[in-house]
Amino acid sequence: MRRIQIAALCLALGAGHALAAQDTITIGMVLEPPNLDPTAGAAAAIDEVVYANIFEGLTRFAPDGSIVPGLAASWEVNAEATTYTFHLREGVTFHDGTTMDADDVAFSLNRARAEDSTNAQKALFSGIDRVEVLDPLTVRVTLSAPNGNFPFNMAWGDAVIVAPESVDNAATAPVGTGPFTFGRWVKGDRVEIARNPAYWGAAPALEKATFKFISDPSAAFAALMAGDVDAFPNFPAPETLAQFQADPRFNVIVGSTEGETILAMNNAQPPLDDVRVRAAIAHAINRQDIIDGAMFGYGTPIGTHFAPHNPDYVDLTALSAYDPEQAKALLAEAGQADLNLRLALPPPSYARRGGEIVAAQLRAVGITTEITNLEWAQWLEQVFKGHDFDLTIVSHTEPMDIGIYARPDYYFQYGKPEFVALMDQLTGTTDPAARTDILKQAQTMIAEDYVNGYLFQLAKTGVADARIEGLWANAPTQANDLTAVRWTD
Fold first, then answer.
1. At residue 122, does pLDDT exceed 70?
2. Which of 57, 277, 327, 365 has a CA that sits 20 to 30 A from residue 211's CA?
3. Is 11 among the domain residues?
């Protein structure tokens, strides 16, 4: 009898554990964020943890890419698109219990646009002339020029609302208004978050969530198979997806991202300041070989820095079609024989695997590359900030970010005045048809200037326990939004 009672107790405890597991989740991520402050860092991994979970903005991206209300319940814009009045939600508090109001919005926007701002997307705020607090729940933002895209800008992770009382610790102990609160960060391993009991909106189904950092593709596969992680929204081993598709325990989720994957070139550094050399490199690249070899067929070829799923996309792949003989002729015309270039590769598998293929393709036209594998923090410091590179491969996952080409100090150092003028014109244009025309001109200009080698649009390939629902299929921004995620049984 005692054995039966003990067995029953064990079963009861096991059942209790299984029930408890239904409101917790472990999410796999390839990269660990360098910090947790999206207003002071460029790494996509920051937003993958905190966007919509810990921090919120005035607006936000919905799963379909549309812009919906966030901390602003509504807003009005004048006819010239120069004045936006945001009406904030009532009863919103930060995780430390302090009230979120118009003063916090003004502080956040003024901090982001300040001269000493370290915001990686400072250009989003450069058009702000002044921010006025009309009352605790109303903020008026006046722009120096018309911008019909301002609500879109405010949906970026870089535009989340922070409080002066807690922002100094945001890098390691973030305090936001979101449905989850920060728990702890075990460096090199995981970040833990928990349901916010005082959240202003609908409570998430999950009580706790853990973001587990697993950079090795084989380890990611093993972790899913063993149940150590429940979902890997950006799975790094596409060669194993067929195995998961054949296993009823899992769902394979394939969608699109905003990630233009490029062979970036240092346009300010000889010999890459010569458009003929950049064009030669572009024509030496066989995109489909890279997609097949590095991504196992997942990815869409691109010929410019714009997402193919965007209705304003122009297919310019023919401008840089694979043509090794033309590449050789352009190098000869530019007087470049036995060219040696440095190729810096960050950790993602698309970069490391793709870099080996690119190096072989360049070698075939007479360009030797010296490959250096960098950790993410090294890449940010050396390449992104220091501009100390010739070539690099990286996926730009920010939404509709062609405007980065107007920044002369951006890491690939283009900033052509004619392109800057186009972006200024876009900012001041609200008519949809006119904006489409400008965007098509911009795409064509950077393609014809061969600013970078445009490789492919990164596919979003995820794997999850089949009982999980609510994960994003597509990625309109770089996020693992857990607000609608739940277990079905």
1. yes
2. 57
3. no
